[in-house]
């Protein structure tokens, strides 16, 4: 499943190939050290309930998956979104 809207360039590349435009979007993963640091913070948080954040809600089944997504940020404000300095298209 993808959470990103494909760029105009990705949509142009997909046009005429039979590939749906949303299939051109790739989920954006945070680097492993960033995800590991987020997980350490989540493990010590008072909102952690057996590996699930009470503030994220039911759509986030597992914190180990949630912390790897770059666009996510902690609802309690413990860690921000991670974006690279330059996004490649």
Task: Describe this structure in a few short sentences.
This protein has 89 residues and is mainly alpha-helical.
Shape: elongated
Would you list the SSEs in sequence order as H and E? HHEEH
Q: Give the strand order of the largest sheet, numbering strands 1, 2, ... along the chain.
A: 1-2
Largest sheet: 2 strands, antiparallel
Q: Report the end-to-end length measured between terminal Cα atoms.
A: 19 Å
How many strand units? 2
- Based on secondary structure, the structural category is mainly alpha
Radius of gyration, whole Å = 16 Å
H/I helix tally: 3
Low-confidence stretches: none
Strand content: under 5%
Q: In percent, how helical is the residue content?
A: 25-40%
Mean pLDDT: 76
How do the helices and strands line up, and which of them pair or pack?
Layout: H1 8-14, H2 32-43, E1 48-49, E2 52-53, H3 63-66
Antiparallel strand pairs: 1-2
What features would you describe in this structure?
This protein has helices at residues 8-14, 32-43, 63-66, and strands spanning 48-49, 52-53. A hairpin with a 2-residue loop joins strand 1 (48-49) and strand 2 (52-53). With 89 residues, the chain is mainly α. It contains 3 helices and 2 strands, in the order H-H-E-E-H.
